Amino acid sequence: MTDHGEIDSVSGRTTTGHEWDGIKELNTPLPRWWLITFYLTIIWAIGYWIVYPAWPLISSNTTGLFGYSTRASLAVELANLEAARGEKMAALAAAPLADIEKDPALLALARAKGRVVFGDNCAPCHGSGAAGAKGFPNLNDDDWLWGGTLEQIMQTIQFGARSGHAKTHEGQMLAFGKDGVLKPDEIVTVANYVRSLSGLPTRQGFDAAKGEKIFTENCVACHGDGGKGNQEMGAPNLTDKIWLYGSDEATLIETISQGRSGVMPAWDGRLDPATLKAMAVYVHSLGGGK
Amino acid sequence: MNTAVNPNELTSDDDYGPLYASRKKVYPQSVSGTFRRIKWGLMAFCLGVYYFLPFVRWNRGLGAPNQAVLIDLPNSRFYFFFIELWPQEVYYFTGLLIVAAVALFLMNSIGGRLWCGYLCPQTVWTDLFYAVERLIEGDRRERMKKDKSSDPMKLERISEIVLKHSIWLLIAWWTGGAWVLYFNDAPTLVKQLITFQAPMIAYIWIGILTATTYVLAGYMREQVCTYMCPWPRIQAALTDEWALNVTYRYDRGEKRTSVKKAAELRALGEQVGDCVDCYQCVAVCPTGIDIRNGPQLECIQCGLCIDACDTVMKKIGRPTRLIAYDNDINIQRRQEGKPPIYRIVRPRTIIYSAMIAAVGGIMLYALLTRSLLDVNVLHDRNPVAVRLSDGSIRNAYTVRLLNKRGFDRVIAIDVDGPVNATVHVVGVDSVTPDRPMIVIGRDQTAELRLLVTAPAESNPEKSIPVHFHVTDIGLGEAASATDNFVAP
To answer: Which of A141, A142, A285 sits opposite B427 (nearest CB)?
Structure first.
């Protein structure tokens, strides 16, 4: 109150003692309703503390009179949302897999649902945009280890590969070096032969005939004549431009020596059938599906 | 001169003045005259538009809403007669707000607070509520007497009060009711409201707006202008010496004295003013101020004091417009014996008008030339490009098509990018493989996943532009967008 120190001669009122550029502020009384409103807001705030959860305690918080909590109301809203979506998801569950992409509404739903579920479950390995990584297939391209039709994609998502599920895909790249089936120089030769299959340059002085012989004796069983691959066994096509682990000589030597057996988990039981369908359609619609 | 006071001398709270002050109730007296008539007219116009506009119909064809002005929130559309706006065209509202703000500045530079005095909803509804009050409880003196009466609980008085508040609430309720009609088909909603079938949100909004109208126009009145509204402060900073404000011409009015005394003094050849200190200008003022104290924040410049003063001037046979729309320059000039000058056209008003014309023109141009078929393209970022097994490169795009017309259309998509590129829309088996066609519903958007594949022999080495052309194969209407085709 010591700020008040002057009386304005015109109005006869005290000033607040504040001055800007020679203009002094009068100590004008507040309108009464304004002051009452101000006090009401204080009372309101106190009431709010009592009625709603407000004060933090050591390990919890005050719960308020009516037990209201945003957490509980969020749960209710989420349940409502699920119920509202239930009809659409039921339609998705009922539609034959092959027909979903033909219905724009179902396709949009499957893609939207698929994108979210993919982000939650698949992105850690396949990347958020399904671009894959070394050892994890790119799902946007048209090269499929276990087949790229809707049914085949569905099968792979549902049961996985080498996942331990009863219906899982089986088959693995043997460790020809580690198991002593091929000698190191044979491995180098066959690695170069494999590179030649897809038109990649080979090491100087490499014996193609020897490579072909080793390949025919050891690899054709799985990778097929000419290395075209076999989706029944998940054996990749070695003649195309896409390489799951890399196409350089060192990587190929490592692959042939040590073998490969990457695992795709089975999602059956973890995701509900409608969601699995949405996933299959989403992955198929990324553009690589057959 | 301010006298410095020793703080020690200010001992009691009273020395600092009171902490709060109660409202001095205003009892505006009825008045008639030019400005009052203008106010009645504008009030009738504004309220008429507000209350009845939702019932105006506008034919937009089958299936489209036929309400002239409709804010269709569930479908995110705004209809205004021949205009239909989509959410992405919300910048038209930005334009409208700019025009409205500059129009306020323009009004202010021409005639002061014309908005406050005649058009502001607070003024219009307060005026209406005062009219009701006057009709039921009588004019200024009667109301003052009734409020002061020591025996207020007479049946007659109670019935008056009940009647007044009932009518106020009725008006307030109608005001809230009219508001919700802008958000739904009005006749249907009215039917629903009456049969209690309307959505809860409608009743809630009617309740809120009824309460705010009742409180703001019935109780808060001039306090809204004085304490809540920012415009008086801004207006004071924006005005200039040429703006016509409601002004007491003190050069003509002073010295104030009674009619009788003025006649005597004039007979003696003494200088007296026209103002007879009758306080009519104060009595009619809806904000309860004395205009003779000069321009002040509370004055909404409604001109009612002009009407009141003119009535008195006519009665006592003096020239009217002792209070008038005028500026300080003219008061100076008259004192110097020069004729008054009024300048409406000056840099300020020209600039404001030009701004309104420019923004309005741009909006109108944009509105008239806007496309009713739109395409937006978003390149997939993750991954930006995919190499396929045969060595070709593919880029994926999210293409969004907007059909703003009221009928379904067949849209063909042409892509002009890498040589020999193929185009595929996910989920669409096209009869023409290189020219996918899709059907898009009326007044809808379609989001497509579009794949562009460049064969191995025409792989671009770096990013090249790719153009997407969409064509309505029926109307020939076309739109296009450009993005990039990227190599991995």
So the answer is: A285
- Residue B150: its pLDDT value, please? 66
Residue B71 host element (H or E): strand B69-72
Closest CA to B323 of B298, B345, B297, B295: B295
| Residue A145 · residue A137 · CB < 8 Å | yes
pLDDT of residue A246: 93
Q: How far apart are alpha carbons B459 and B420 in whole angstroms?
A: 10
Q: What is the CA radius of gyration of chain A?
A: 35
- Of A255, A50, A288, A51, which is closest to residue A156 (Cα–Cα)? A288
Contact call for residues B285 and B291 (beta carbons, < 8 A): yes
Give the model's pLDDT for residue B15. Answer: 63
- A14–B21 C-beta distance less than 8 A: no
Does B154 contact chain A (CB < 8 Å)?
A: no
How far, in Å, CA of B471 to CA of A144, rounded?
A: 36
Instruction: Quickly state the pLDDT bin for B11 (edges 50, 70, 90).
Output: low
- Range name among A129-143, B291-305, B395-409, B427-441 with the lowest pLDDT average: B427-441
**DSSP strands (E only) in B235-286:** 245-248
Facing B427 at nearest CB: one of A24, A104, A143: A104
d(CA A219, CA A157): 27
* ipTM value for the complex: 0.79
Query: What type of residue sits at position B138?
Result: G
**Integer Cα distance of B142 and B132 in angstroms:** 14
Residues with Cβ within 8 Å of B237's Cβ and at least 6 positions away in sequence, in order, are none
